[in-house]
Amino acid sequence: MPPSPATSSHSLLSRLDESAFTARHLRIYVTVLIGHFLCGFVINLTGVILPGVIKTFHLTSESAGVFSSALFAGMLVGAAVAGTVSDRFGRKVPLSITVIVYAVFSLAAVFAPSFGALVAFRALQGIGLGAEIAVVLPYIAEFVPSRHRGPLVTAATAAWLIGLPTAAAVGTAVVPAFGWRAMFVIATVPVVVGVFMLATLPESVRYLLRRDRLADAAAIVSGLCRGGNPTEAPAGRQAAPESGGTVRTLVARHYLRYTIAIWFMEVCAGAFLYGLSSWLPSVLEDQGVDLLKSFGYTAIITAAGVVGAILAGQLINRIGRRVVLGGAFVLSGLFCLAWGTTSATGAVIVLGSLATFFGSGLAGSTLFAYASELYPTASRATGLGWAAAWQKVGGLIMPVLVGFILAAHASQFLFFLVFGIISILAGIAALVATFETRGRTVEQITSEITGEGAPAALTPARS
Predict the structure, then answer these.
(1) What does pTM read for this prediction?
(2) Max alpha carbon distance in the chain (Å)?
(3) Helices (H) and strands (E) in the chain, counts
(4) Which of helix, strand or coil describes residue 96?
(5) Distance CA 377, CA 380 (A)
(6) C-alpha radius of gyration, the chain, whole number
(7) HEC letters along 210-251
(8) Which parts of the chain sit beneath pLDDT 70?
(9) In angstroms, what CA-CA distances link 35 with 156, 159, 191, 200, 204?
(10) Residue 268 · residue 242 · CB < 8 Å
(11) Transmembrane segments in this chain: where (predicted)?
């Protein structure tokens, strides 16, 4: 007698979750990691090219803020749409296409004839960048063994964060010699990675099981995981595609409290990360630091966030998501307040590094790991996509707000005060409204939140 669909699904997911981390896992992970790093690099070109763009097009601080925010407007749209598309049509193809899209519009930006055209291309590029973030982290969360999920998702966020100091370091060498447009030439490289993804990545096993494509899922698990007996899927009908990936799930009674908290934290995290990365070189330059040194200081300060993201994976497996999120956000806010009280070079670097270590590093990476595992498989990418979209709301608002603050010649302390306050508020939200996911499979998380006896993600879709 052939195994039932539910039994086959359970067997496949058990093998997937309990597997060793194989060479095949590593190849898939490195491929998506490269694409995610390049996504971070392209996003964080703003701070590097902004001084040159201002000079080329004779921009005011307000106009420069609009340029910075155009990217995040596109990312907001891309993140919100891509999550739903991925939950309905799979992870592999949408992920590959998003990388190709942001590379193509990098090429268009090279030849932008006017400031208006540059803003338009940057916004369109943002759609691909925001979409990539919405799809890649659920993809990682769904194929890696459970005990590696937290560390590998946060390490992917670290790879993304490496894009910021890398952009600053590359800009130091490239912009003075070749101009800001040369950075967009470099940003066309991801098209190669996108094509490679399309040709080599497998589809998410959990997505296939939700579509009742047991044979396809079994073949991927057998090629991915060592040991165990391959599960033969029963012959028979293929279910019609389910209506997954709706925002209704995210705001349903069981999830509403956690969703509101995630969205609020993401707004604060986006305001911190993107506001700081967009304006820090210019703020340092206004304080008397020459342009090359401002790029160098920015690279050092933002590199601390990478270290925080790498350590986050180990901390969240040991002490949990809630404590890491709440503590890191609050500490980041306090260091921002201290940062604003000094202009001494050593203190600026140390306090800035500590603020980003806890803020964009520990807290930011943990927040994405948490958002990528909280929701059921049918809505996971939608959940992550909307979380990423709210992050872009913060990125959309903060560069414009900072532009007006600087245009008004306000105290430099006000610049850092804003970042400190939003970080502390995010920490409070994390401590009071986070569901602890440590030590659970994604199906167990769904089961505990909804109170259902059987994990919903193990049940195949029905027509």
Answers:
(1) 0.76
(2) 77
(3) 20, 0
(4) helix
(5) 5
(6) 22
(7) HCCCHHHHHHHHHHHCCCCCCCCCCCCCCCCCCCCCCHHHHC
(8) 1-7, 227-245, 277-279, 281-295, 406, 410, 452-463
(9) 10, 9, 9, 13, 17
(10) no
(11) 28-54, 66-86, 93-113, 119-140, 152-174, 180-201, 255-275, 295-316, 323-341, 347-371, 383-407, 413-435
